[in-house]
Amino acid sequence: MNSTTVKGTSPETNPSVVVRGPDDFGVEERPLAPPGPGEVLVRVGAAGICGSDVELFAGTRPAAYVSYPVVPGHEWAGTVAALGEGVDWLDVDDPVVAQGFRNCGRCPRCREGATNLCEAGYAETGFTHPGAFSSYVAVPARLVHRLNAGADLEAAALLEPSACVLEGVLAAAPAVGARVAVVGTGTLSLVACQVLRAYSPSELVLIGDSPSGRELGTAWGATQCVSNAEAVEPGWTCDADVVIEAGSRQTSAKAALNAARRGATVVLEGIPGGPADGDLTDIVLKHLRVQGVFGASASAWGHVVGMFNAGLLDLRPLISHRYAVADVGSALSTLRERPADLRKVLLRP
After folding, report:
1. 54 and 186 together in one domain
2. Is residue 300 part of a domain?
3. Is 310 a domain residue?
4. Containing domain of residue 236, as a range?
5. For residue range 237-281, what is the model confidence (pLDDT) as tens digits?
6. Least C-beta-crowded within 10 Å: which of 63, 199, 205, 258?
7. From the CA atom positions of the chain, what is the Rg in Å?
8. Phi and psi of 348, rounded to 5°?
């Protein structure tokens, strides 16, 4: 390590989960270079596993959105281990998170603020660049967000999916006191309940079947819970002004369209495992504005980190299982088995 240009310490090796291809992975000691100019080396505190990671391991993620071999891990938080040349606004041991999309910052989409839609080509930590299923991860400093001193790193590992929720809510721009609905009772949906609560909705309808999800949703602002079956019945609606869908079921989009009043805004965050149910004619007849969400922009990241630092997001209750990085196989088995208490699964170095 060149001590004249790098502040902090950088070990020579980095134990990491390496996915070489579909169902072909293992833990390897990989060489670790010190951070280059404009880079930050982060000591990983915790990393979450999401559905996109499961697809990566199984080989079902679209080829355009993964580059094997790769170290997964795009949901994470940690502390600064070393700073590359020119990084003078962070300090060693600062708790941090970082945006996953490695956008160019120059294309028309980046310049308009849609950094999640960068036209320079898809590049994301954990899918095309080494991620945080490891002891250390290196990222461009321009993507880093500093957390409050003493931040809960396990909870902060859920800021990436929370930023995706913020992307959708900011696009929907609900009015204070609006009627809102959330489809799903998983991580994204429950974060959406917390975010929407900040808008003081007159009603917040949570659509889903998980008893524990309903319990948490009610604690975080839901005024009514509706089953998935009821939400797709012909004629059912809750006349919501804004609907955030994050259920990722084939029926979720249909439930979202049903829940919306005429002229409402519907945000689709979830990706179902097959063709989605629903009649697109409903979009026309109900004069709906439908917004898809692909990841999170820099603006959404700024909002979500601000909420977290202000104590407005309670993410720890969403964590159900923890495994060491070396035990990633067991973590994946838990996700496949889907026990009743399953929420977010974390890996720890």
Report:
1. no
2. no
3. no
4. 162-292
5. 999 999 999 998 999 999 999 999 999 999 999 988 788 898 899
6. 63
7. 20
8. -120, 140
Task: Tell me the C-alpha distance between 164 and 248, whole Å.
Answer: 14
CA torsion, points 73, 211, 155, 200, in degrees to nearest 10? 120
Q: Which two three-digit tokens encode residue 308? A: 């977290």
Q: 17 with 154, same domain?
A: yes
Q: Is the pLDDT of residue 3 over 60?
A: no
Strand partners, 182: 206, 244
Query: Is residue 86 domain-shared with residue 25, that is, in the same domain?
Result: yes
What pTM does this model have?
0.95
- Asked if 316 and 155 count as a contact pair (C-beta separation under 8 A), the reply is yes
Asked, for residue 309, whether it belongs to a domain, the answer is: no
| Co-location of 119 and 241 in the same domain | no
Annotate 134-173 with three-state secondary structure.
Answer: ECEEEEEHHHEEECCCCCCHHHHCCHHHHHHHHHHHHHHC
For residue 129, how many other CB atoms are within 10 A of its CB?
A: 18
123-148: pLDDT as tens digits: 999 999 999 999 999 999 999 999 99
Reported as a single tens digit per residue, the pLDDT across 26-58 is 999 999 999 999 999 999 999 999 999 999 999
Q: Which amino acid is at 346?
A: L
Name 243's bridge partners.
181, 266
Taking the C-alpha atoms of residue 325 and residue 304, their distance in angstroms, rounded to an integer, is 26
